[in-house]
């Protein structure tokens, strides 16, 4: 296992993040099965364990807390808040200070720890000023209950605004972004991945297998063309479809860390092996052609007009950071 730095911090995080949404959930992993997967992940050098306060109505956090007992400090433990703790209480959800404080205290108890390494805002709350959220998160960092912060499922402009406020006011900035990203869902390439690259954020890519659709070894009726392409390329390379799909998520940016929730040790091994798979450029091009995805305005417009706007020298200029979704000259 190799490690990268979390955003603009010095924290080392493994290339593959372990998701625990199914831990303790009905029809999910039993505690014994979850322990086998987590132990194998740790033996492979994995150190990021990701959960949320509402997964299984808190059962995921309880199971994770039990599994990490006696070795908690060796892991980068991540959890989330935002989702309602009580649908009958209007203040039991959202990103305001009251819900943050109460959600955090509940998570600390369930996880059997006195601090969270990475605390995610689970979703943009359009009713709470972003300044309130950032100040409340910073207060929790200064109190020693959180080490680093991240945000999931939010517009790029909100994340940029939040980190600009943090920079101006000396608050803790977001170090990481969590978004859905797969060959079946490339929307993040429009604004979110370029924003993350520009601000130096780590990107946790959830759903990298398209909820299992990209991992199938047998065809299905009316499946998207990219699913067939993944399977064909896997056969050509002598790997599995899941490994091709996971390797593709890392092809555009070193900031991306696949976030997977394997249910068995074999599935985890398959994901770990994908970390050593580098897809040739022509394979990446074939996969992306099959997705029928375009960045849309303004990205495609900028790509089209840049040579005429900036002149011949533009084509000989090497960018500092290639931007996902834009064609590199």
Automatic annotation (TrEMBL):
Transmembrane segments: none annotated. One of its GO terms (cellular component) is cytosol. GO terms for molecular function: oxidoreductase activity. Keywords: Oxidoreductase. Residues 16-290 form the NADP-dependent oxidoreductase domain. InterPro entries: AKR, AKR_Detox_Biosynth, NAD(P)_OxRdtase_dom_sf, NADP_OxRdtase_dom. Pfam families: Aldo_ket_red. PANTHER family: NAD(P)-LINKED OXIDOREDUCTASE SUPERFAMILY PROTEIN, NADH-SPECIFIC METHYLGLYOXAL REDUCTASE-RELATED. This is Aryl-alcohol dehydrogenase-like predicted oxidoreductase. It comes from Actinomadura hallensis. The lineage of its organism: Bacteria, Bacillati, Actinomycetota, Actinomycetes, Streptosporangiales.
């Amino acid at each position: 296992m190799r490690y990268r730095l979390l955003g603009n911090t010095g924290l080392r995080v493994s290339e593959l993040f372990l998701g625990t949404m199914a831990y303790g959930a009905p029809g999910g992993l039993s505690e014994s099965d979850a322990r086998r997967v987590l132990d194998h992940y740790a033996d492979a050098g994995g150190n990021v364990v990701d959960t949320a306060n509402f997964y299984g109505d808190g059962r995921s956090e309880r199971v994770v807390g039990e599994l990490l007992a006696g070795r908690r400090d060796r892991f980068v433990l991540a959890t989330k808040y935002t989702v309602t703790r009580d649908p009958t209480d209007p203040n039991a959800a959202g990103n305001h200070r009251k819900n943050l404080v109460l959600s955090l205290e509940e998570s600390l108890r369930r996880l059997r720890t006195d601090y969270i390494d990475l605390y995610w805002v689970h979703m943009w709350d359009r009713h709470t000023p972003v300044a309130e959220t950032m100040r409340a998160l910073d207060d929790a960092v200064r109190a020693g209950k959180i080490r680093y912060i991240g945000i999931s499922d939010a517009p790029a402009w909100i994340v940029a605004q939040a980190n600009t406020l943090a920079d101006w006011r000396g608050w803790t900035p977001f170090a990481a972004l969590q978004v859905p990203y797969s060959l079946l869902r490339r929307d993040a390439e429009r604004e979110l991945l370029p924003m993350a690259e520009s601000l130096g954020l780590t990107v946790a890519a959830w759903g990298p297998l398209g909820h299992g659709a990209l991992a199938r070894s047998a065809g299905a009726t009316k499946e998207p063309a990219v699913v067939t392409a993944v399977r064909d390329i896997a056969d050509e390379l002598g790997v599995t479809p899941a490994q091709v799909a996971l390797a593709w998520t890392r092809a555009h940016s070193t900031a991306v860390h696949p976030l997977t929730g394997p249910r068995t040790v074999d599935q985890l091994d398959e994901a770990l092996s994908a970390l050593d798979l580098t897809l040739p450029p022509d394979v990446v091009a074939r996969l992306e052609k099959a997705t029928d995805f375009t960045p849309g305005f303004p990205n495609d417009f900028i790509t089209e007009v840049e040579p005429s706007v900036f002149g011949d020298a533009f084509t000989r200029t090497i960018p500092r950071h290639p931007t996902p979704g834009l064609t590199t000259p």
